[in-house]
Amino acid sequence: MGIKEIAEKAGVSKTTVSLALNGHKGVGHETRMAIIRIAKEMNYRVPGERSYALPQHGVIVLAKLSKHGLILNEDQNTFIVNYIEGINQVVKEYGYSFEIITHSLESLTPFISEMKSKQPKGIIVLGTELSSPDIQCLKDLSYPYVIIDTYFEQLEADFITMGNIGSVYTIISYLVKRHHTDIRMVTSTVSSGNISLRERGFIQAMNEYGLTLSEQSLIPVKPGFNGAYKEMLAYLQGGGHLPQALFCFNDVAAFGVIKAIKEAGFKVPRDVSVIGFDDLPMSSMMEPRLTTVKIPTQHIGALAARTIVEKIIAKTKEAPMDILVHGKLVIRESVIDR
To answer: Is the dihedral of CA 128, 306, 320, 164 positive or negative?
Structure first.
């Protein structure tokens, strides 16, 4: 593989490729980085793996916006760090600086005002706790932005996030293959875009497999370990039905649910199989080790950063797009055959 093939794929001349790979002047920064990326993808050794001085094109902001902190809290720090790593790597590659801002607010107005003052080149919004009206308020931003960790399909905005419905379908499909027919979902009393989609995925999958659904199929608990633990314990001690399997809306809830199940005198997975969502580090260390869905959050962060850079470079407003990245089921010991 040589310069000719790289030039053809990049749509530039061989001279431009040579200048870019050898660190010479005469090539724009974005073009140079695109050529280097193509060269590496084609297994072409960049001369000396040169470290090029990157111009600072401005700031790209990751805005961590919480409304109540019940879902977006320290329990999810590992998840958020992975987003940050993916974003940071791409932002640096393209010569932008990266800044993280954190806001706990009831209204997005103060955040939008701050962005007008800060004047970033682009914004990545961590929208975990944002509602549909909140997302619509983001239209007041005068800078390119994308939204991660939530999705509202009825809204015209750039969403890059996990494929919740498909991932939950994978969970129910796996439980059915392990001969579970009595399945319920532990959901949250505090809704979010992700949780609503997981509920929808659960209902769709149950219907598709012809499994029984009722008002009791969704068991609501307060978000967080303590909320899930206390409310599941009260549910079981109050005579609540223990199904063959429980799908919990996230791993933190699953941790609390499993503690409650044990204290109520039952065993996981002998009496009930449990599946979570997120694959937090504790999932592989608890007893039993938790079967869960792993979301490629670092990849989502990188996609969001590349999308923002492309928007900045294009300088034109394109039609909004949705990118859903599917998770992978991580099979451990919290599920057995029935």
So the answer is: negative
